[in-house]
Amino acid sequence: MPDPSSTLAPVVSSDTDAEPRRRFSDVLTELAGRPTAAISLGDMLDAFGDRAFGALMLVFAAPNMLPLPPGVSVVLGAPLLFVTTQLMLGRSALWMPRFIRRQSISRDVFIVLTTKLSPILQRAERGLRPRLSLLLHPANERIIGAACLMLAIILLLPIPFGNIPPAWALAAFALGILERDGLATLVGWLGTIGSVLILAAVSSALIAGARAFLDQPWILIS
Fold first, then answer.
1. In the beta sheet, which residues pair with residue 181?
2. Which of 82, 124, 198, 211 is the residue whose CA sits 20 to 30 A from 56?
3. Residue 128 has pLDDT above 70, yes or no
């Protein structure tokens, strides 16, 4: 019996003829096909239901896996702080205030993102399946949530192309949560280590540059 405290515990049905859950990419394509001017966060939350944690993490992390214009990672990364904080706190369901649910993405932009990301997601989904379930125990999910919150903060930093490594790690964690695949979360942990190392290297370079600048002899001209 699944642990009811898990954020994304699978629903067990006695109906053996029940249809399998749709893949994330299929739901994303369905959302993009809606005849509306924009897709709101509330629409996404309703479409993914009990998989909202992993789904919305992936929605906002996946576009950051691609090179983006400056500032876009901030727009996409800010909602990740909200989602990952709740995952870290062990909430059983994702909650969003009404003003955030009303935030939307233009349908045209949503279609472009879906078109670019769907092939990548579909290839990834073919290799995903429930396994290594201990890594997705409720207590471990909270630890994953803390790591994802840290990755979301790194993603927001103004580091050139620095959004890409944490975005890949967040996407791996999100897919692991969505498909209950512990192996995918291991990939997420590797990505987290890589993101932290990159941040440490960039920080060290900036500090070294600042020290070198401050150590330069200054000539005062009267």
1. 131
2. 198
3. yes
